[in-house]
Design a protein that fits this description.
The protein has 408 residues and is an alpha/beta fold. The chain has helices at 2-14, 23-28, 30-36, 75-84, 101-110, 145-154, 169-182, 196-206, 237-240, 244-260, 353-367, 375-394, and strands spanning 66-71, 91-97, 118-119, 135-138, 158-161, 186-188, 213-223, 266-272, 286-292, 298-304, 306-317, 320-324, 335-339, 343-345, 398-399. The protein has 2 domains: 27-191, 3-Layer(aba) Sandwich (Rossmann fold), CATH 3.40.50; 193-348 and 375-399, 2-Layer Sandwich (Dihydrodipicolinate Reductase, domain 2). Helix 6 (145-154) runs parallel beside helix 7 and helix 7 runs antiparallel to helix 12 (375-394). Bound molecules: NADPH dihydro-nicotinamide-adenine-dinucleotide phosphate.
Length: 408
């Protein structure tokens, strides 16, 4: 597990249901299966290697700052998001939720979280009467997102949920329904929508900087492990679905949609799972898909847990190309236009994406601002992921409705 997590983190920081004939089915129906078996439990894990906890407590925030309960003190929460709350205008860490009492103590002390605001999973329901908590940030393994988001709504809190939203579109629909019932906000933590390079790329594509878009190619890969399923949730289909597509390839899928500004009308795909490799006893090693858009543009998306790290998006149009490499990292983005007006872009510091995402959510909570990365967007993406697995499973092109549902 350590190897896997470390390898992935290093790479990123450097820039770097249809049935059981194959894993395709199990991936898209994993959450439903988990429900049928009584659910996959939230369980505390050791403090990830290399975490640096803050040595001074966070600065005081404005009176209207939104108090968050962070659920799941893992690598992404501790290394990326929690340190960024200080940079946000009106977001602060009000509580933490973890299955590891030692982490609750150490992380709580470092972030100045009062002892009575440190919750175990068993005590989670008590957040309902804790007025210091306005919102819950779900940073758990994906197969647990739906259950804990729905519990947070039942406690009357707003929810910021990590990507992907869940492991099935059915669970996404349950989450959206719970948000509506509770009259609380639901936002997906799709950080690239708040990152300067990707925002600039969206503007350039709207302005037809490469002419009419014909091709999008993107790839998100890294070499996982060695690991074993019992050691790492990312290799466990009940928690991770089919694997690389939900976890990493979702960035390529998202890019294809926000760069073209279109929804695909059909998809074809292939998956690969090697035999005899314990890393891939439950998940796929690679997923490749091809989306066709109503304009005639085609996107080729590849994602892998078993090839050397890369993370790029290329858009090729009638008049040139936009090259983003790396495209959606935490930092180190590079972007250039290869067209008549060829140039490199440096639209800002990518590391602002974390705090800007928090500020967008708090603007929605406090001022009712429309959410850019809504639950409906998360649902749309899960529908497309299900269509990709269905296309791979059947070996046929799957036609799609404008909302991403598969046409029968
Ligand atoms: P980690 O494995 O590092 O952390 C997950 C944490 O969830 C654990 O430390 C543990 O916290 C808690 N947890 C509860 N139940 C379980 C269980 N059964 N198995 C494993 N962990 C459990 O994962 P990440 O932090 O990398 O990922 C968490 C979420 O964040 C995922 O949804 C992932 O997709 C997303 N993510 C998003 C990124 C982005 O760029 N937006 C980047 C990386 C991840 P505790 O011990 O406190 O209970």
């Amino acid at each position: 597990m350590v190897n896997n997590v470390t390898t992935r983190r290093r790479f990123i920081q450097a820039g770097g249901g249809v049935v059981a004939a194959s894993l395709a089915a199990t991936a898209s129906s994993a959450a439903t299966l988990a429900q049928a078996r009584g659910g996959t439990r939230a369980m505390g894990q050791p403090l990830p290697e290399g975490v640096k906890l803050p040595s001074t407590p966070p600065r005081r925030k404005r009176p209207d700052s939104v108090g968050f309960a962070i659920v799941g003190l893992g690598g992404y929460a501790l290394n990326q998001m929690m340190p960024r709350f200080d940079q946000a205008e009106r977001a602060h860490i009000a509580a933490i939720v973890s299955g590891n009492p030692d982490k609750l103590r150490r992380v709580g002390d470092a972030y100045g979280v009062p002892e009575d605001a440190r919750y175990s999973y068993d005590a989670f329901a008590r957040i309902a009467s804790d007025d210091r908590i306005d919102a819950v940030y779900i940073v758990l393994p994906t197969g647990l997102h739906a259950e804990w988001a729905i519990r947070a709504f039942a406690a009357g809190k707003h929810v910021l949920c990590e990507k992907p939203m869940a492991l099935s579109s059915a669970d996404c629909e349950r989450m959206i329904a719970a948000s509506r019932r509770a009259d609380r906000k639901l936002m997906l933590a799709y950080r690239s929508h708040f990152e300067p390079y990707n925002l600039e790329a969206m503007t350039l594509m709207e302005q037809k900087a490469v002419g009419a878009i014909r091709l999008v190619r993107s790839e998100q890969s890294y070499r996982m492990g060695p690991t074993s399923p019992s050691e790492n949730w990312r290799a466990n289909r009940m928690l991770a679905g089919g694997g690389p597509l939900e976890d990493y390839g979702i960035y390529g899928l998202q890019s294809a949609l926000y760069l073209t500004g279109e929804m695909p009308e059909s998809v074809s795909a292939t998956t690969f799972r090697p035999t005899g490799d314990p890393r891939f006893s439950e998940i796929f090693a690679h997923v490749a898909s091809q989306l066709r858009f109503p304009s005639g543009a085609v996107a080729q998306l590849v994602t892998s847990y078993d090839s050397a790290g890369t993370n790029f998006a290329h858009v090729r149009g009638t008049d040139g190309a936009l090259i983003m490499d790396p495209a959606t990292s935490y930092s180190g983005q590079k972007m250039r236009l290869e067209a008549r007006n060829a140039r490199e872009f440096a639209p800002g510091d990518p590391s602002v994406q974390f705090a800007r995402q928090l500020d967008h959510f708090t603007n929605a909570v406090r001022d009712g601002e429309a959410i850019r990365t809504s639950g409906e967007m998360g649902l749309r993406d899960l529908r497309l992921i299900e269509a990709i697995y269905a296309a791979a499973e059947t070996g046929r092109t799957v036609n799609l409705a404008p909302d991403g549902r598969m046409r029968r």
